[in-house]
Inverse folding.
């Protein structure tokens, strides 16, 4: 029995997870001690916990080192370390900029901070788990936390509607994923991700079980990624949730789902991956790119524009995963998360008088708030893939990787992706045109209720500089 007991290395591997767990549980107790005026302490402690967890994640490369722990339940690799740092960074920025938004929307829930930590913990388990049960538990921890976070602004109808849609559809997709795990177990006799996917390259009933199981498992991932046809929840939830929570979902939760898909595809036996899965998932990727961009053309609300945009970006990522562009996909996820955090933080600042930020409302923004207009322009041009901003380079590296493939289907995938990038430019450039070119002032531009906030200024300033200049020092080879 002694060999069943976790070793010191096992405990070292799970230390970043334990910090977030203990912190979350302690904060649930602390909320009864600290009153509203003392919430700054919970916020500071949350930021400290995130930084501490991030430090031990970063150290995971050397202590305990790359490998599997807890009898193969948990895996530390270069990929999981980079992904975990991204989730923690998203959580850190969300906690930093949320207090003003919570105050303006009269959301006085101290549970906000432990919920963000729990959601981040779930994301980390999703991509660090090498066992299907661990992955599923991570996904549920993340999902349950996000359901509550989306509904925090319960004094608005849109938030309650968004919560119900997200919860009902999310529970339904979790059922698909759990059924998929059952079939994967039935085909292989194990819940170890790598071993459970091996029968897919063989023939017979085991391969059939595994193919069915993987298909159902992918439905759950596709829902969280908001790929067509599992995207219906995205615009309403993005619009209904508090804007900083939407940014957290778009940068953290969405990236966790994309990271999980990348990890699953790395484990699929290569021989079969080029046939059935390439075709089926490639068609979903093309449908997501096309639908997301065409639907976004008709939108006027900035949050809905970014919601439909996120559907198309998920399509680009899937295309990169299909051709084996692992490093390029990771780079794309980092840039994508940074752009979304910057975009939603800017929108949160502009709407802090409870205004809806639409294209008309930001008319003439340059005349009244030039720095915000410039930051908004940099973020949206980067999302469009306009050089020399970070979004251009992330797309360039990803598309180059797709172009290296000589398969006809992958060439079609590349052509569709490039065409969709051109379509996307039309709705991104609208934001720039409205804020710079129009003289009449919209409701947001003329509002006198906008408060300057140090956290917003620091976060927006740093993220905008990263988007504008990161390509000088940060590229896919930085991960190697």
């Amino acid at each position: 029995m002694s060999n069943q007991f976790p070793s010191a290395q096992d405990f070292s591997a799970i230390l970043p997870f334990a910090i977030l767990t203990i912190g979350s549980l302690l904060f649930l107790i602390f909320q009864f001690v600290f009153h509203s005026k003392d919430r700054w302490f919970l916020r500071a402690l949350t930021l400290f916990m995130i930084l501490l967890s991030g430090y031990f994640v970063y150290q995971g490369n050397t202590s305990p080192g790359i490998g599997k722990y807890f009898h193969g339940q948990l895996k530390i690799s270069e990929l999981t370390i980079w992904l975990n740092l991204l989730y923690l960074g998203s959580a850190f920025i969300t906690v930093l900029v949320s207090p003003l938004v919570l105050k303006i929307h009269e959301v006085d829930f101290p549970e906000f901070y432990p919920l963000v930590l729990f959601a981040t913990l779930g994301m980390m388990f999703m991509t660090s788990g090498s066992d299907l049960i661990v992955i599923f538990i991570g996904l549920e921890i993340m999902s349950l936390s996000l359901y509550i976070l989306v509904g925090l602004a319960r004094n608005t109808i849109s938030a309650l509607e968004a919560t119900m849609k997200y919860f009902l559809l999310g529970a339904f997709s979790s059922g698909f994923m759990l059924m998929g795990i059952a079939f994967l177990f039935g085909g292989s006799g194990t819940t170890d991700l790598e071993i459970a996917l091996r029968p897919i390259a063989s023939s017979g009933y085991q391969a059939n079980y595994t193919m069915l199981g993987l298909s159902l498992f992918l439905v759950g991932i596709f829902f969280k990624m908001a790929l067509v046809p599992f995207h219906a929840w995205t615009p309403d939830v993005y619009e209904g949730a508090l804007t900083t929570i939407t940014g957290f979902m778009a940068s953290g939760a969405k990236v966790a789902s994309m990271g999980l898909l990348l990890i699953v595809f790395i484990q699929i036996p290569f021989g079969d991956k080029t046939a059935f899965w390439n075709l089926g998932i490639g068609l979903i990727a093309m449908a997501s790119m096309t639908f997301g961009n065409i639907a976004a053309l008709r939108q006027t609300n900035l949050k809905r524009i970014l919601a439909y945009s996120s559907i198309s970006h998920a399509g680009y990522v899937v295309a990169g995963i299909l051709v084996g562009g692992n490093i390029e996909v990771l780079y794309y996820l980092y840039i994508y998360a940074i752009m979304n955090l910057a975009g939603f933080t800017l929108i949160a600042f502009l709407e802090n008088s409870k205004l809806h930020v639409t294209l008309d409302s930001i008319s003439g923004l340059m005349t009244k708030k030039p720095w915000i207009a410039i930051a908004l322009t940099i973020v949206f041009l980067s999302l469009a893939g306009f050089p020399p901003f970070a979004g251009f380079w992330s797309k360039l590296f990803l598309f180059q990787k797709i172009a290296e493939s000589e398969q006809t289907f992958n060439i079609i995938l590349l052509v569709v992706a490039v065409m969709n990038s051109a379509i996307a430019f039309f709705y991104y450039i609208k934001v720039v045109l409205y804020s710079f070119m129009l003289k009449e002032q919209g409701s947001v531009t003329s509002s006198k209720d906008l408060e300057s906030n140090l956290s917003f200024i620091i976060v927006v300033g740093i993220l905008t500089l990263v988007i504008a200049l990161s390509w000088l020092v940060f590229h896919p080879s930085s991960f190697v």
Observations:
- The chain has two domains: 1-167+228-267, 269-480.
- The CA atoms of residues 147 and 478 lie 35 Å apart.
- Residues 269-480 form one domain.
- The first strand starts at residue 67 and ends at 69.
